[in-house]
């Protein structure tokens, strides 16, 4: 690793430590809204069972998402976002 890159990396780590301790405010903050499985499913007018089949997950997984016991991860989270923003794209892809 080049000396210049190493110094930049060390500076970043020090900055992170200061932010974590509350000594420094982060320059940027990102908020990511979690997809709401219940709202998406209701918008699509699907039963929990049909929604689970559509997404390729178990019925209990959909129930747990809707009850807040679990959060969607990975591919399921991506499919929920697609279903939320462009349901027709999801349905077309699954034909």
Shape: elongated
Task: Compute the number of structural domains.
Answer: 2
Summing up helix and strand content along with how strands pair, one would put the structural category as mainly alpha
- Given this structure, which CATH class of the largest domain is correct? Mainly Alpha
CATH architecture of the largest domain: Orthogonal Bundle
Query: How many whole angstroms does the radius of gyration measure?
Result: 20 Å
State the end-to-end distance.
49 Å
Number of strands: 0
Name the poorly predicted regions.
none
Helix content: 55-70%
Q: Estimate the mean pLDDT confidence.
A: 92
Q: SSE order, as H and E?
A: HHHHHH
> Within the CATH hierarchy, at the fold level, what is the topology of the largest domain?
434 Repressor (Amino-terminal Domain)
Biggest β-sheet description: none
Number of helices: 6
CATH superfamily of the largest domain: lambda repressor-like DNA-binding domains
Q: How much of the residues is beta strand, in percent?
A: under 5%
